[in-house]
């Protein structure tokens, strides 16, 4: 299917219209809930069509589309709708310094404006709609650029998003590089991009020209540690979770296990058991099987080249087919850190397996070669070992004795760190990311007699009065450890000090 591209000369006016809609339509919380309700039901009505569309685009298993995309979107919409009213309420500032004691201060959430969301091909439903849900919940309008690599899904997304809202709050721009470049020249209030590090840099650079903040979700080589502190009887269970993560969606997952690090004492057992599981899962696989293919010929050729250049031992069941961009799931054993499979994110049904001698050495190699991955997976039953990896390796997210499930937890933040991106989204964090936290301070007129000491002419007496109000109670000495919590006596002294300070301030007013 050919995707109908948006005319380049129409993009500027389309973005301008999104701005006009935002300026003219103040979306109340009730309005936003109604729009999310509409989105929920239109997706429910088109669930089968979305599954069929992605099956046509790259032989995506309908089971994977249902479980890994649509189920999460439905759950996230319901979660956001359930709590949106409470998230939207102004929050009272928890602590007011004494000099602000007469004020009433709150923090309210206001929409940013017009949001640009650029989505990838690999999970084109959830990675499009999850940020759109958050942007709408926060009261914004959206300009959405779906992937041109999934034409059937992008066409359906375009039709659905243009039909289900009471207001034209979501505009869709379809196209490739030219259309995206034109989009990035427009002024937005925030941009969210999910994709490769290379394109992410270009998006960030273009956004900087407009002083536009960005959220980048960039992926990377996510390591998986399988240590000797795992019960032998559980090895099959652990490896099943790891192999599923590496090969679901044909490895085209930003948080897939990109490579497996195995303690040398259990390495041979792991290779043997992994081969059995691979055969159990994919032993009869062909290009006609219910297994997702690579997205295009470019990805196919890159993957085949990697497999040809690797010096590791390849284990697979099946034969690659260029005409359908099919590559069978492949384990690669005895891999070194300088192997072809370790140069960049594989993003393919390839799982390199590396032997290590100590966990300290393994963590050091990860930091040296692929620091700040989007995900880190730890398979160990030793809490101290788990904590060592957590303390010494930065990552966007972590799973212990599990893989990828943290991404589906839409009630918790998801995002990268360092080279794997920055910014969080999902549920409340999407609402926060697409909102501005605005402080609103109210000062009563009757308080003038307490604050007029700030006015010129500046005198020593006025300064002394204000300093009494400004300085808080110190609960720590010049040296030694700072107490984590103030003692009961300190609290009493603090309360007394507060009362004394207020009394002195009032006395100063009367005397001076």
Automatic annotation (TrEMBL):
Active site: 217, 254
One cellular component term from this protein's GO annotations in UniProt: cytoplasm
Aldehyde dehydrogenase domain mapped to chain residues: 6-440
Phylogenetic placement of the source organism: Eukaryota, Fungi, Dikarya, Ascomycota, Saccharomycotina
PROSITE patterns registered for this protein in UniProt: ALDEHYDE_DEHYDR_CYS, ALDEHYDE_DEHYDR_GLU
Position of the signal peptide: none
Alphabetized UniProt keyword annotations: Oxidoreductase
Family (UniProt): Belongs to the aldehyde dehydrogenase family.
Gene3D superfamilies attached to this UniProt entry: Aldehyde Dehydrogenase, Chain A, domain 1, Aldehyde Dehydrogenase, Chain A, domain 2
Source organism (scientific name): Komagataella pastoris
A Pfam match: Aldedh
Protein name per UniProt: Aldehyde dehydrogenase
GO biological process, one term: aldehyde metabolic process
């Amino acid at each position: 299917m050919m995707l109908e591209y948006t005319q380049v000369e129409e993009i500027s006016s389309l973005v301008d219209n999104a701005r006009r809609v935002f300026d003219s339509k103040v979306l109340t919380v009730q309005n936003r809930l109604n729009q999310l309700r509409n989105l929920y039901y239109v997706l429910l009505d088109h669930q089968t069509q979305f599954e069929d569309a992605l099956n046509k685009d790259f032989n995506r298993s309908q089971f994977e589309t249902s479980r890994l995309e649509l189920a999460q979107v439905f759950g996230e919409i319901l979660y956001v709708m359930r709590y949106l009213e409470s998230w939207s309420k102004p929050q009272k500032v928890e602590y007011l310094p004494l000099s602000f004691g007469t004020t009433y201060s709150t923090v309210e959430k206001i929409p940013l404006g017009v949001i640009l969301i650029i989505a990838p091909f690999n999970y084109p439903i959830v990675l499009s709609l999850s940020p759109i849900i958050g942007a709408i919940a926060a009261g914004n309008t959206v300009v959405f650029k779906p992937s041109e690599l999934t034409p059937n899904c992008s066409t359906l997304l375009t039709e659905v998003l243009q039909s289900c809202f009471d207001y034209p709050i979501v505009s869709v721009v379809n196209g490739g590089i030219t259309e995206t470049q034109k989009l990035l020249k427009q002024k937005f209030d925030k941009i969210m991009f999910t994709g490769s590090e290379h394109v992410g840099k270009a998006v960030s650079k273009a956004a900087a020209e407009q002083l536009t903040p960005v959220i980048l979700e960039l992926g990377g080589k996510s390591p998986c540690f399988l240590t000797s502190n795992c019960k032998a009887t559980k090895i099959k269970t652990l490896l099943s979770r790891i192999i599923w993560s590496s090969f679901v969606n044909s490895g085209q997952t930003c948080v897939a296990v990109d490579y497996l690090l195995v303690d040398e004492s259990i390495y041979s057992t792991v290779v043997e058991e992994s081969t059995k599981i691979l055969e159990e899962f994919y032993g009869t696989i062909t290009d006609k099987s219910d297994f997702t293919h690579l997205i295009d010929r470019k990805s196919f050729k890159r993957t085949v080249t990697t497999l040809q250049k690797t010096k590791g031992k390849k284990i697979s069941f099946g034969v690659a087919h260029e005409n359908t961009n099919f590559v069978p799931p492949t384990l690669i054993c005895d891999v070194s850190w300088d192997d072809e499979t370790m140069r960049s994110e594989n993003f393919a049904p390839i799982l390199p397996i590396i032997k290590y001698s100590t966990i300290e050495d393994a963590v050091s190699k990860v930091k040296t070669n692929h620091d700040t991955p989007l995900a880190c997976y730890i398979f160990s039953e030793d809490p101290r070992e788990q904590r060592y990896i957590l303390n010494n390796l930065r990552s966007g997210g972590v799973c212990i004795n599990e893989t990828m499930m943290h991404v589906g937890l839409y009630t918790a933040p998801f995002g990268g760190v360092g080279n794997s991106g920055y910014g969080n989204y999902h549920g409340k964090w999407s609402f926060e990311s697409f909102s501005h936290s605005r402080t609103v301070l109210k000062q009563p007129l009757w308080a003038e007699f307490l604050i007029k000491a700030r006015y010129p002419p500046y005198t020593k007496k006025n300064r002394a009065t204000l300093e009494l109000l400004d300085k808080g109670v110190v609960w720590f000495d010049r040296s030694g450890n700072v107490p984590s919590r103030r003692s009961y006596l300190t609290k009493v002294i603090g309360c007394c000090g507060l009362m004394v300070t207020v009394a002195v301030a009032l006395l100063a007013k009367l005397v001076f």
